[in-house]
Design goal:
The structure is a single chain. This protein is α/β, with parallel strands linked by helices. It folds into 2 domains: 3-126 and 374-391, Enolase-like, domain 1; 137-364, Alpha-Beta Barrel (TIM Barrel), CATH 3.20.20.120. The protein has 15 helices and 14 strands. The chain has helices at 52-55, 59-68, 71-75, 82-91, 107-125, 131-135, 160-172, 189-200, 219-223, 246-252, 266-275, 291-304, 318-328, 342-345, 377-383, and strands spanning 3-20, 25-38, 43-48, 148-150, 153-155, 177-181, 205-209, 231-235, 257-259, 280-283, 307-310, 334-337, 362-364, 384-391. It is globular. The mean pLDDT is 94.
Length: 393
């Protein structure tokens, strides 16, 4: 079976509330959505979330990459089993158009195209996307089959009243893990953590995300007054330009360090392992270049004794939520899971099915073929600001 056509859209999704952290503030998310049509008419869908401050990508730049890549040479081939599909996905290498030493400036587009292909062929083979982990040889160290996943909550920077309400809601809803955004200029982090710990309860696992807000020489001092609130880890405390200094930071503070903006590719993962710059990886499908590359990164982490979480970008639609669910239920030893915030965060849904997590952040594995969800094409077209198609045959 061959791919007949690929169509890329830039879709603007409105958020129900403003998401604010040290690097950015947003009320909507511009995502790249790709539809893959096979020669027999089966259609698969994928999604990427370009973030300039993470991988240097923009939605418009991703579409330009899509329009400029040689489709016939890269994606024109017969596939009758998963190994052929994996090889096809690995051949997709859009032109970057600039220096890319970390190998991340095409990641959101690669994720969107790859997921659309995996979804289409999953439907053709009658297997869910989670089966990819079983068939993908580089993932053999981290394979598992789990019937459910437990997602964590998040507290972003807001007014004191809204933060308290958010904390009370998370505790009442049975969450076990909570991420708190820190590093906002002028914020009294110790006061915030004192209040949040009180309302979240003593059993809640609280981790922090600084979104690269601090310099390496101040991380230990920033964290010192927060230690009493039992912080499980600090995510991306410094800009990527200072990431090498985290080896020394780890010696100065007892709080485990997680990489996010500095963990976008295989090259980043290998560099972090060599430099001893972290204790955990934040693996996000779009940021890390797709389902397969994220499996490779998890396998690298596992071999190096580094923990990892499955993260998400605020504003992901049900397409990426479904892909994340399949990844989370087929990969072992995930410390934390983020995602499936769909109806809690988005005003519009691209999928006909609602796969938002339930009480306690718990959500069941998706068993249908491919992504296990169907996309509302009319909603995609209504929300799309542009669309470009390329035919292979």
């Amino acid at each position: 079976m061959r791919i007949a056509e690929l169509t890329a859209y830039i879709v603007n999704l409105r958020l129900r509330k403003t998401i604010k952290h040290a690097s950015f503030s947003r009320r909507e998310s511009a995502n790249v959505v790709v539809c893959c049509r096979l020669a027999n008419g089966i259609t698969g869908w994928g999604e990427g979330v370009p973030r300039p401050y993470v991988t240097g990508e923009t939605p418009e730049g991703a579409v330009e990459q899509f329009m400029g890549f040689p489709v016939a040479q890269q994606l024109d081939g017969d596939c009758d089993r998963w190994e052929h599909v994996f090889a096809l996905c690995d051949r997709f290498r859009p032109a970057v158009g600039q220096d890319d030493p970390r190998g991340c400036r095409t990641n959101s587009l690669k994720c969107a195209v790859e997921l659309s292909i995996l979804d289409a062929f999953g439907q053709l083979f009658g297997e869910p996307l989670s089966a990819v982990t079983e068939h993908f040889d580089p993932a053999r160290q981290v394979r598992i089959s789990s019937p459910k996943v437990r997602y964590s909550g998040a507290v972003t920077s807001a007014t004191r009243r809204k933060e308290v309400i958010s904390a009370i809601a998370m505790r009442a809803y049975g969450f076990r893990h909570c991420k708190v955004k820190v590093g906002i200029a002028g914020s009294d982090e110790a006061r915030r953590l004192r209040v949040l710990r009180r309302w979240l309860g003593r059993r809640m696992d609280i981790r922090l995300d600084a979104n690269a807000a601090w310099h390496a020489d101040e991380v230990a001092a920033k964290l010192r007054p927060l230690l009493q609130y039992r912080i499980s880890c600090i995510e991306q405390p410094v800009p990527h330009t200072e990431v090498d200094a985290l080896e020394e930071v780890r010696r100065e503070t007892p709080v485990p360090v997680m990489l996010d903006e500095s963990l976008t590719s295989i090259a980043d993962a290998k560099s972090a392992i060599r430099g001893h710059t972290c204790d955990l990886f934040n693996v996000r499908l779009s940021k890390c270049g797709g389902f397969l590359n994220s499996l490779r990164i998890a396998a690298l982490a596992h071999s190096a004794g580094i923990d990892y979480q499955l993260g998400c970008h605020p504003g992901e639609s049900g397409i990426l939520s479904a892909a994340g669910r399949h990844w989370a239920t087929s990969v072992k030893d995930i410390r934390y899971c983020e995602g499936s915030y769909d109806r809690h965060l988005l005003t519009d849904s691209l999928t006909n099915e609602d796969i938002t997590f339930g009480y306690g952040g718990v959500a069941r594995a998706l068993k249908g073929p491919g992504l296990g969800v169907t996309v509302n094409r009319s909603t995609v077209r209504r929300l799309a600001k542009c669309a470009f198609s390329t035919k292979l045959r």
